[in-house]
Amino acid sequence: MGKITAAITGVGQYLPEYILTNDELSQMVDTNDEWIMSHTGIKTRHILKGEGVGSSYMGARAVINLLDKTGVDPMSVDVVICATVTPDMFFPSTGNLIADQAGCKNAFAFDVSAACSGFLFALTTGAKFIEAGTSKRVIVVGADKMSSIVDYTDRSTCPLFGDAAGAMLIEPTEKEVGIIDGLFHVDGEGLEHLVMKAGGSVKPASHESIDAEEHFVYQEGRHVYKHAVTDMLTSSLDVMKRNNLTVDDISYLVPHQANLRIIEAVADRAGVPAEKVLVNIEHYGNTSAASIPLCIDEYKSKLKPGDKIILTAFGAGFTWGAMYIIWDI
Hints:
Blueprint: E1 5-14, E2 18-21, H1 22-25, H2 33-40, E3 44-47, H3 55-70, E4 79-83, H4 94-101, E5 108-112, H5 118-131, E6 138-145, E7 163-173, E8 178-186, E9 194-195, H6 207-211, E10 218-219, H7 221-242, E11 252-255, H8 260-270, H9 281-284, H10 291-299, E12 308-315, E13 319-326
Helix pairs in contact: 3-4, 7-8
């Protein structure tokens, strides 16, 4: 038997129906379409509305979409891994709830928390179950209801985020396709620059923390921008170098969809032409852990077997990394 790798055999997604436009945002906070587009490249974002629905609601529907597309029996799924920073609740895990709602009754499930890098961290974790031979079908989900932690009076952050979920199925193969390599990093120095200040065990929810509006995303934009560009660029180039790849060898770069200016800066400094960079941030905003699978699902008709693709992300923590995959669907 040859070396087992984790092949990507399906992708699914879920987007809430409600679309929040820049024009509507400009009625909520001091901003406008021109400013948002010039600073972020975002025109619209989807927002999950309704009582009693959260990240598991979206994640389960992304998994069901994936299972419907692939014709896979949910009872045959071995593991469900959910990347999220907006869990339905601290416990049980959102992955647990997604597996239940999607009918994956034979799977065990858990969450991974790595902010906007979460999907890649979860995907490399899922690949290890496949490579070890202990699991045959693993579903990795990125699901975030970012609207639940966004302050819609903060003009610097509220235009950035949207709600969505994306899911990916990985299965074993002996062909040299799927998840080939990845490099991942963390640096706790990022804590003060991108954080939700209250709600955890260090600073539990209180009247004081609520009054101080500390249960929302706090971001120092310039500092985050600098690190995001540098770290996504460096990790992408490092994983390419480790696999003897040049820009000419790469079919596509799929960056986390955080900000169009970040995406363009990474691509420009890496020498990747615009036609090789997959971008959908204009319509969805930053959907955190959902952004990479959502982008891949949107462009999957453009992908062909044998395409060499670099995925890269950066998130709170700081967390960042890059992955090299070979497409085979």
